[in-house]
């Protein structure tokens, strides 16, 4: 640190920036100690002349995501006004008189979160957690019974066991080739760089060919999950499935919707499934409400499709398709979704009924726009899903057969 | 060669001198990036002038611009360096033909700078008489995560390790500008090493200034109408709102058509320059565009 920082005014500035960083951290911005040092260096470099410059200097260092801008803005206003510091610091460091303080504005988005972060932390007692223990040792026949059993008909204990089985499910082996190469003794392309290095070991007399082959990578999976009331029995179990998928591989994007669309990909990356689900539920505000499929698909297509559907993603649409008012918009959004991904797989728990027919107008509107139509009501159907993701198309669930049948 | 700007105001003037109309936040972050020697990470919608900043910076400072366009499957061979295999092969054969050559000399010879094909990242680390170059890593979101991890070494230490050759370290770190259209989220580890800035659509006043400086042939009335129309079209619920680049394209298209003011038929015919999605064009064509144009022209006439 330079000598200047130990001076009277700037020493206080450094302290205040550290306090401000702490407030930002509490408001949910990922701010580390390294960032604080950067911020102090940046403010030193820029020199405080105007409130606006000071604002953007700190913004450049502390904000790393567009979404965080609004939190930063609120925190900046609250923190630096409450202490009325900037004006004092500017007065100390420069002869320029500060501008008048800004007027009080109505609360804006993010204000609550920041206000909470700046307030003294409340002591919250965690709710007593009921502990239940299950025996994981199941006999073979138990497993078989459980596999075929509908999630909705399982008892709480059975669900718990099913969740453990999901964690151990054999995940899809859906790798695709990329344009990168890895060295591979059985590869079919010559790897010139390694060939030369190897040849030189022998003095360049013999050219010992090394081979390479294209690297493989998991296909990104995007799950759109309906969590409305009619899906309640299945959605939480399916979330466990998504968590198992997200834990083993990196590219899984999960969205849930009932009346509004929420991205819970980050929440699902917690290692512990229960913690992940708890964090996800906290994020989602419309558990088991009504459904607005067209609305949710529109929001997805507009705000997320370009960001998550790259690199040949497969979309898993998990919904019963019981949309109340079927509009042309639903067809349009489904069509758009299908055209922007590699494969669109509709998972519908209603298929558990043997006598299921595609009668509901919502289902009929959506069916022509999906590649596959599959059940998802028990462990066996999850296994099937994994198999079809691995590229085994034998049990392919062609949606057209349902349209023809009814 | 111009010197790096000494203050935020200098940065603003510097950008203005080359015809880039920047707002103060952008100038602040640019000044900090230059002063602290940190990479600048620019995110924003397509066509808001992210790439342009690097170009302007290189011409204003008189530095060389090295551009690395990212794409899926970009690898070390096309981003950093590659060995000239054909040349190496020739060298081996020649050595064989001329007779016994020491193995070590041959190896030193083969993996020397002579056979090294330098790609953008390595070029950026080389000393330059005009000062450290401007390295533009464009559309980083298009490449895959593996490449980002590789960039970490380059961006934090400004060095590249070539196993056969040794470590190449930049004497003067290049000015690095990374852009992203945010089609996916860039990893935090990379962002942490950079200064971040979200480049937004400009407000009406700044857009008008940009238009005036870039397309001076357009009449004053036309420029004002174009800006007002584009600003109001951005408030519509569109799949892809037009960026500044589209505004400029549209303005030059209208100038080519000898337009002095906007009229509904002209707008309808040239909407394809501004909007790039069929759904958006359909939505805006016909009466909707006419209504909007009427409103815009009414608003412009009102204060006069």
Overall 3D shape of chain B: elongated
What's the architecture of the largest domain in chain B in CATH terms?
3-Layer(aba) Sandwich
Structural class of chain B, by secondary structure, is alpha/beta
What is the strand tally of chain B? 9
Number of domains of chain B: 3
Order of helices and strands of chain A: HHHHHHHHEEHEEHEEHHEHEHEHH
Compressed to H and E, one letter per element, the order of chain B equals HHEHEHEHHEHEHEEEHEHHHHHH
> Helical segment tally of chain B?
15
State the oligomer.
Answer: heterodimer
State the helicity of chain B in percent bands.
40-55%
User: Strand fraction band of chain B?
Assistant: 5-15%
Q: What distance lies between the first and last C-alpha atoms of chain B, to the nearest angstrom?
A: 46 Å
User: Which spans of chain A have pLDDT < 50 for at least 5 consecutive residues?
Assistant: 1-9, 94-107, 120-137
The largest pleated sheet of chain B is described as: 5 strands, parallel
Read across the widest sheet of chain B, the strand sequence of neighbours is: 2-5-8-1-9
Classified in CATH, the superfamily of the largest domain in chain A is: von Willebrand factor, type A domain
Overall morphology of chain A = globular
Order of strands across the widest beta sheet of chain A?
A: 6-5-4-7-8-9
Provide an overview of this structure:
The complex is a heterodimer of chains A (406) and B (304). Chain A is an alpha/beta fold and 406 residues long. Chain A has three domains: 3-118, no CATH class; 178-218, no CATH class; 221-405, 3-Layer(aba) Sandwich (Rossmann fold), CATH 3.40.50. Chain A has 16 helices and nine strands. Chain A has helices at residues 8-26, 33-46, 51-62, 68-82, 85-93, 111-118, 140-148, 156-167, 192-201, 232-248, 273-283, 293-308, 328-339, 361-366, 379-389, 399-405; strands at residues 175-183, 189-190, 211-218, 221-226, 252-257, 261-263, 314-318, 343-347, 372-374. A six-stranded mixed beta sheet of chain A has the order 6-5-4-7-8-9, sandwiched between helices. In chain A, a hairpin with a 3-residue loop joins strand 5 (252-257) and strand 6 (261-263). The longest helix of chain A is centred in the first third of the chain and has 19 residues, at 8-26. Chain B is of the alpha/beta class and 304 residues long. Chain B folds into three domains: 8-80 and 119-199, 3-Layer(aba) Sandwich (Rossmann fold), CATH 3.40.50.300; 81-113, no CATH class; 204-296. Helices cover 52% and strands 13% of the residues of chain B. Chain B is built from 15 helices and nine strands. Chain B has helices at 8-17, 24-36, 50-61, 76-79, 85-98, 103-110, 120-125, 145-157, 188-192, 204-214, 220-234, 244-256, 264-274, 278-284, 287-301; strands at 40-44, 65-69, 81-83, 116-118, 134-138, 159-162, 166-169, 175-180, 195-199. In chain B, the strands form three sheets. Chain B has a five-stranded parallel beta sheet with strand order 2-5-8-1-9. Chain B has a two-stranded antiparallel sheet with strand order 3-4. A two-stranded antiparallel sheet of chain B has the order 6-7. The two termini of chain B are 46 Å apart. The relative contact order of chain B is 0.12. The model of chain B has no long low-confidence stretch (mean pLDDT 87). The interface between A and B is large, with 44 and 42 residues.
């Amino acid at each position: 640190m330079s000598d200047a920082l130990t001076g009277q005014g700037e020493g206080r500035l450094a302290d205040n920036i550290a306090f401000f960083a702490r407030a930002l951290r509490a408001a949910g911005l990922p701010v580390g100690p390294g960032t604080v040092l950067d911020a102090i260096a940046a403010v030193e470099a820029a020199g405080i002349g105007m409130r606006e410059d000071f604002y953007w200097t700190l913004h450049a260092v502390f904000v790393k995501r567009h979404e965080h801008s609004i939190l930063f803005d609120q925190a900046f206003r609250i923190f630096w006004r409450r202490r009325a510091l900037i004006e004092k610091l500017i007065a100390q460091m420069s002869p320029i008189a500060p501008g008048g303080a800004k007027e009080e504005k109505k609360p804006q988005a993010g204000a609550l979160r920041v206000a909470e972060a700046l307030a003294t932390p409340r002591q919250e007692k965690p709710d007593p957690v009921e502990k239940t223990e299950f025996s994981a040792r199941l006999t073979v026949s138990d497993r078989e019974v459980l596999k075929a059993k509908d999630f909705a008909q399982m008892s709480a204990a059975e669900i718990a066991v099913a969740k453990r089985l999901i964690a151990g499910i054999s995940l899809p082996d859906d790798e695709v080739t990329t344009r990168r190469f890895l060295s591979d003794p059985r590869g079919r392309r010559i790897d010139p760089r390694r060939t030369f290095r190897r040849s030189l070991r022998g003095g360049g007399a013999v050219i010992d060919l090394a081979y390479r082959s294209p690297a493989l990578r998991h296909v990104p999976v995007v799950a759109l999950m309906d969590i409305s009331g009619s899906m309640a029995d299945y959605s939480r179990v399916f979330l466990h499935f998504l968590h198992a998928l997200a834990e083993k591989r990196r590219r899984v994007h999960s969205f849930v919707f009932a009346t509004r669309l929420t991205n819970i990909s980050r929440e699902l990356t917690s290692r512990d499934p229960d913690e992940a689900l708890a964090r996800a539920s906290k994020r989602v505000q419309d558990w088991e409400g009504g459904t607005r499929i067209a609305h949710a698909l529109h929001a997805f297509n507009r705000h997320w499709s370009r960001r998550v559907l790259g690199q040949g993603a497969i979309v898993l649409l998990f919904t019963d398709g019981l949309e109340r008012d079927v509009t042309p918009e639903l067809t349009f959004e489904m069509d758009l979704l299908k055209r922007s991904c590699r494969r669109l797989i509709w998972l519908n728990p209603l298929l558990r009924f043997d006598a299921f027919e595609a009668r509901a107008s919502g289902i009929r509107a959506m069916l022509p726009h999906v590649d596959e139509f599959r059940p998802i009501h028990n462990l066996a159907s999850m296994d099937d899903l994994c198999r079809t993701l691995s590229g085994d198309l034998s049990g392919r669930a062609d949606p057209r057969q349902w349209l023809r049948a009814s | 060669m111009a010197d790096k700007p000494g203050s935020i105001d200098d940065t603003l003037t510097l950008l203005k001198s080359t015809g880039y109309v920047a707002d103060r936040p952008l100038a602040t972050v640019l000044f900090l990036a230059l002063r602290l020697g940190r990479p600048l990470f620019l995110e924003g919608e397509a066509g808001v002038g992210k790439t342009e900043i690097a170009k302007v910076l290189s011409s204003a400072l008189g530095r060389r611009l090295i551009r690395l366009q990212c794409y899926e499957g970009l690898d070390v061979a096309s981003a950093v360096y590659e060995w000239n295999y054909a040349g190496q092969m020739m060298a081996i054969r020649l050595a064989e033909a001329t007779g016994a050559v020491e193995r070590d000399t041959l190896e030193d010879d083969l993996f020397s700078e002579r056979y090294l094909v330098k790609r953008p990242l390595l070029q950026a680390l080389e000393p330059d008489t005009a000062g450290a170059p401007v390295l533009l890593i464009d559309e980083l979101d298009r490449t895959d995560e593996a490449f980002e991890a590789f960039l970490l070494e380059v961006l934090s230490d400004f060095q590249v390790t070539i196993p056969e050759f040794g470590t190449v370290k930049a004497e003067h770190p290049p000015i690095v500008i990374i852009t992203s259209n945010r089609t996916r989220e860039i990893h935090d580890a990379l962002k942490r090493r950079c200064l971040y800035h979200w480049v937004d659509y400009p407000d009406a006043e700044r857009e008008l200034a940009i238009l005036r400086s870039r397309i001076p042939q357009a009449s004053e009335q036309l420029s004002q109408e174009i800006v007002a129309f584009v600003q109001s079209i951005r408030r519509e619920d569109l799949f892809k709102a037009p960026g500044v680049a589209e505004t400029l394209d549209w303005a030059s298209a209208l100038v080519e058509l000898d337009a002095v003011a906007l009229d509904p038929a002209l707008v309808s015919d040239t909407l394809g320059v501004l909007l790039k999605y069929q759904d958006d064009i359909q939505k805006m064509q016909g009466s909707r565009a006419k209504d909007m144009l009427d409103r815009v022209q009414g608003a412009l006439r009102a204060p006069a």
